[in-house]
Design a protein that fits this description.
By secondary structure, the chain is mainly alpha-helical. The chain folds into 2 domains: about 160 residues, no CATH class; about 260 residues, hpI Integrase, Chain A (Orthogonal Bundle), CATH 1.10.443. The chain is about 50% helix and about 10% strand. It is built from 13 helices and 8 strands.
Length: about 425
Amino acid sequence: MMYNFQSEKYKTKLMCDNDGIPLLLPNIYLHSLYKNRQAYKLTWVDGSGKRRIKDAELDKVTLSKTKITECFYELRKLLLWLESYSENSPSISLITHHNLPEEILNHYINNVLILERNTSEKMVEKAVSGLTYYYNYLAYNGFTNIKEIRVKDDKKSIARDNTKRRNVIKYLSPRMRAEIYANAKSLRVECILRAGGECGLRTRENMGLLLNDFRVGGQPYLGMKSFFKEIDIELKLNTRLDKQKQEFKYWLQGKYTKGRKNGVGGISRWIYIPRDVMLRFKLYYETERPDCAEDSFFLTDPQSRIVNGIKQYQGTRDFKDTRASVIDRQKKGLLKTYLYKLDEKHTYHILRHSYGTDKFHDAVEEDGLELENVTHLSRPYLLVAELLGHETQGKDAVTTTRKYIRSVKEKLDQENSYLEYSNG
């Protein structure tokens, strides 16, 4: 795994690998970028007016602080993807990333970002721009040749459609989530989807569920096997249902969560796993998970050549496959009419957002608040921010609160539709 941090000495963001070894070329580039605030832009000098790479020059341009930060994150995202991609491609590695063929870079832009991750048109433009600046810098200093990184014509409309995804309903009811889980092709897929919809995990955060107990800063924390033992003991003692543990607290380490804007890593937090979800996790462990030394709870498909811990994109892939099955059932008229339809623009993140919406709504009800009067300083928002690992300060806090207010309204609309269906 790759890490990034803020260097106080050099006043720049830097990167290192899992062993703490600095990534040389990215760090030289970042140091130059933050120090000089300049990058290189390709311009054509062919007198005929035709754009030919062989008649091009790299000219210096000044970048804003915001643009420099974007360049850092786009480079980081590429290298994180490349780290996992290289496992099944021996000719590609982080060490040789500066000489990546154009085909690989454009595969990342067009296939990974646009097709797999449903990245919006604006965010794709930022990726193209940020990576172009990086490879132009390497070309200017003789580390590689000029790369033409671009969105292919047949992918432009798809990127625009990804942008329209924001208009889709951003809440899936518990009933629709149950339908999604029921259509999972395996227990592992079901459990990963439940982790998003019932525990609020991001797809990347599924990597942070560990099998064995662990220590952080000298403090011991329980892994999945310890929770399974608790359940076994309860069953062995024939514990009454009302005395059985209904929720399990798991410490999710910050290194598995979404990084903060200042580059110091993510927010560690407790996640709360309901008993019914933990029982599905336990069944996966006992019946489907390959027996190996890997500590990651979720493993790759046992039919794959090498079994190891899942990557950050696994939830995205699993949701996409399951979504196709549910949508197929919708088209055949096999789902109840009261269920709001699953849309092709829905992603794994909608599960996490739906979980947050339910918690937000319940807290508003418990506190007897009017929905429109909830602010980013109110307990419902602070509670959900803690559960999901959101920042609670700054303009993003206000924006996130508004999103949940809108989503609660969507939730109430869906519940009213269900009641009308039931009473009709």
